[in-house]
């Protein structure tokens, strides 16, 4: 730290430091034992403090969670001073040291860190973590926060501590000595913040046995987390059958599939990048307050620029190895890599190394040289990777406008060479195909596999027009040839509680069709105004997993003859039935052109790579779904994605899914909105795009969505972006049985 800040937590602070204090407190949590309440006065319940380091990830001390049982704890967080606390189950994902054998002589062994993953997704604030290699503070001060029990009630507290030096400065467990303030019981695991730069630099480890103060562990010690071995390929499935995702299948971007360090910090950097989007929130962000503090990351980037760059680096797969990252840093011109322990491990670490080591006039060039090295690093050219590379290149081009034309020509040449290398690799779509929108090379599948080629269970729900709160229903088994056998049916059943009413009938239908290790898919035909019904969240029996985690569950539009008409200008008059072109009943038969367009779209998204497009959210800002005429103008390979489905922000939100069906879309992905209006949604946008774009056609989506639901249910934090995910998958080649058809008796 290069300058000293005078002031205190209770007075003399400017507005920027007050904003910093509020952000720190909003992200600081209490950690408790499981199976009890969350008041510290309950015997043995309160274990210590921690803080949100990334969405649904808590960092604390290993000795804090050691008081839990079986690796399970309860995390209690409070979004603001007037908000009610919320308790969420958490699971210990990793500790440093790796094996918790208890304290040794002189205290718990350093680094004494633990990562806790929440068992369910929640909205919350996250701290900003320094990417500098090893912050040193000389005679500076740090700010801290944590929870304690005060007069029998939980209280959050904060204050300043003076940096007095380090303990074991040459070891991998170096600790910072802190003094000049009392640290009460419970604050261990809380964040330590550099108040000058406005970033978290450490974790409170212990308080002094005698006197004031205690110790802190540097945040960079997380680099010591174990690097897992690379996962092998997915196990082979039965001939002609796809591999069904398991809860432990990996994200397509993960070079080290279970590398918690990379997963946590990629999520951290994307979160802070996305928080800068104009999402309508009135709360300041960490970049906002860092700008007010006039802090600069190194000598060249503003906090906004730094956050945007780190977010774009986090969209790419991590370095293949630490050695590869060190080689990249060593290759930078006029740069000498300092000795570092622990060594840098992620792209953000490499950027942090550059901050303090470049001359003022060469800092920007050094950062851009590093970013170019990341851009051209070897990696599989999946569609989402190519998009991420293009976004990073756009950032580099914009930043390079501040440098001379010779340098701009040089980086353009390096980019062209990189694209040329990609073009010569004909094992998939080339970079030029992706970047210019050209047709993919040699990626067409003659026989795309989808659920229509397998037996499935079909549930049809028909709303009773004169009793809108009730429905008729039927359950059938469909065969690959399209024939259906009706098993059960019922009438006048309340929509509220429909899942419980159908549980026994569905269980019997599944029993007839399931094979070992291959549960049959469930297709649910719903009226267009009920397509958002959470069928995948129904539970077949008390205590069982939801249907969507148990088996593939997709919805279909069951009343295409009742979709709305369109006026003469081609824009929908939604909610009004067509003027009875096919008879007095007012039903609307799709025209031959509409059916042809629907079949063409279905073929294109299955025979080629599909492309996701978010329609109702633009960088976190809610927008209405376009009318049907505009939807028809989207690219033929588009899979529409809805981020905010169900929040009813606009008058016609309830009809959005029906408009997509009217426009000819048989494949639509969305998530049910149950989040705060200003919640960060960038992870959902990114996850949906990777799921759709990187797949081998839309035929894989029912299986992929099932895998995501399974991962959410299993508590895999990396899949929490998919909480509430739903899929319309409506094959035009497999028409639904007509309501008047006589089906084969069981």
Q: Your description of this structure?
A:
- It is a single chain.
- The protein has 746 residues and is an alpha+beta fold.
- The protein is 27% helix and 21% strand.
- The strands form five sheets. It has a six-stranded antiparallel beta barrel with strand order 1-2-3-6-5-4.
- Helix 7 (347-355) packs antiparallel against helix 8.
- It starts with 14 loop residues before the first helix and ends in a 17-residue tail after the last strand.
Please describe the topology of this protein.
Layout: H1 15-27, E1 28-32, E2 46-54, E3 57-60, H2 62-65, E4 72-77, E5 86-96, E6 113-118, E7 141-150, E8 153-167, E9 175-179, E10 191-194, E11 199-207, E12 214-218, H3 260-275, H4 286-292, H5 303-314, H6 322-330, H7 347-355, H8 363-375, H9 383-399, H10 405-424, H11 431-436, E13 456-464, E14 467-478, E15 484-494, H12 498-513, E16 521-526, H13 547-550, E17 553-557, H14 592-607, E18 611-614, E19 617-618, E20 621-622, H15 628-632, E21 638-645, H16 656-662, E22 667-672, H17 682-693, H18 701-713, E23 725-729
Helix pairs in contact: 1-4, 3-5, 5-9, 7-8, 8-9
């Amino acid at each position: 730290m290069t300058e000293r800040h005078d002031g205190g937590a209770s007075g003399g602070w400017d507005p920027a430091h007050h904003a910093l204090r509020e952000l720190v407190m909003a992200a600081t949590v209490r950690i408790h034992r499981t199976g009890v309440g969350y008041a510290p006065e309950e015997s043995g319940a309160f274990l210590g403090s921690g803080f949100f380091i990334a969405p649904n990830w808590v960092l604390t001390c290993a000795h804090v969670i050691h008081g839990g049982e079986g690796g399970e704890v309860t995390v209690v967080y409070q979004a603001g001073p007037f908000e009610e606390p919320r308790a969420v189950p958490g699971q210990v994902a990793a500790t440093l040291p790796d094996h918790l054998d208890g304290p040794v002589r002189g205290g718990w062994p350093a680094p004494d860190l633990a990562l806790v993953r929440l068992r369910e997704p929640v909205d919350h604030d996250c701290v900003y973590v320094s990417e500098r290699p090893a912050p040193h503070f000389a005679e500076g001060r740090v700010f801290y926060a944590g929870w304690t029990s005060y007069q029998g009630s939980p209280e959050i507290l904060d204050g300043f501590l003076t940096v007095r030096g380090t303990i074991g400065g040459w070891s991998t467990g170096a600790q910072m000595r802190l003094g000049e303030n009392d640290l009460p019981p419970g604050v261990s695991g809380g964040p330590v913040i550099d108040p000058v730069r406005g970033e978290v630099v450490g974790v409170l480890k212990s308080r002094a046995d005698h006197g004031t103060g205690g110790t802190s562990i540097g945040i960079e010690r997380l680099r010591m987390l174990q690097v897992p071995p690379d996962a092998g390929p997915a196990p082979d499935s039965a001939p002609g059958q796809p591999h069904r995702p398991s809860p432990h299948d990996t994200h397509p971007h993960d070079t080290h599939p279970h590398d918690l360090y990379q997963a946590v910090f990629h999520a951290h950097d994307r979160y802070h990048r996305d928080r800068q989007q104009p999402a309508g929130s009135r709360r300041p962000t960490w970049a906002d307050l860092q700008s007010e503090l006039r802090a600069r990351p190194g000598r060249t980037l503003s906090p906004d620029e730094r956050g945007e760059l780190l977010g774009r680096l986090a969209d790419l797969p991590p370095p293949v190895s630490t050695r590869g990252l060190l080689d990249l840093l060593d290759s930078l011109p006029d740069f000498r890599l300092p000795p570092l322990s622990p060594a840098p491990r992620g792209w953000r670490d490499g950027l942090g190394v550059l901050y303090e080591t470049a001359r003022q006039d060469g800092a920007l060039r050094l950062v851009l040289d590093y970013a170019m090295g990341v851009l051209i690093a070897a990696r599989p050219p999946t569609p989402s990777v190519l998009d991420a590379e293009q976004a990073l290149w756009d950032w580099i081009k914009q930043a390079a406008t501040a440098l001379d034309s010779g340098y701009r020509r040089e980086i353009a040449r390096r980019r062209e060479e990189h694209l040329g290398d990609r073009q010569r690799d004909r094992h998939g779509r080339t970079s030029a195909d992706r970047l210019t929108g050209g047709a993919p090379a040699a990626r067409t599948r003659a026989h795309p596999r989808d659920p229509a080629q397998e037996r499935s269970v079909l549930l049809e729900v028909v709303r009773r027009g004169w009793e809108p709160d009730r429905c008729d229903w039927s359950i059938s088994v469909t065969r690959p040839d399209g024939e259906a056998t009706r098993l059960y049916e019922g009438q006048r059943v309340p929509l509220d509680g429909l899942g419980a009413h159908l549980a026994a009938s569905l269980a019997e239908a599944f029993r007839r069709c399931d094979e070992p290790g291959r549960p049959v898919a469930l297709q649910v035909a719903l009226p267009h105004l009920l397509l958002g019904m959470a069928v995948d969240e129904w539970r077949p029996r008390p205590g069982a997993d939801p249907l969507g985690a148990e088996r593939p569950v997709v919805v279909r539009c069951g009343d295409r003859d009742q979709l709305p008409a369109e006026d003469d200008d081609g824009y929908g008059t939604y909610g009004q039935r067509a003027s009875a072109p096919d008879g007095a009943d007012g039903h609307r038969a799709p025209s031959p052109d509409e059916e042809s367009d629907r079949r063409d779209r279905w073929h294109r998204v299955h025979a080629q790579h599909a492309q996701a497009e978010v329609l109702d959210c633009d960088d976190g800002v809610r927008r209405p779904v376009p009318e049907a005429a505009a939807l028809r103008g989207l690219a033929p390979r588009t899979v529409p994605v809805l981020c905010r489905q169900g929040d009813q922000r606009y008058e016609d939100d309830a009809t959005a899914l029906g408009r997509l069906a009217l426009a000819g879309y048989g494949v639509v992905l969305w998530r049910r909105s149950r989040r705060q209006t200003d919640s960060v949604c960038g992870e959902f946008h990114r996850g949906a795009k990777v799921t759709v774009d990187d797949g081998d056609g839309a035929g894989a989506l029912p299986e992929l969505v099932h895998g995501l639901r399974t991962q959410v249910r299993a508590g895999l934090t990396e899949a929490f972006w998919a909480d509430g995910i739903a899929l319309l998958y409506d094959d035009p080649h497999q028409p639904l049985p007509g309501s008047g058809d006589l089906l084969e008796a069981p």
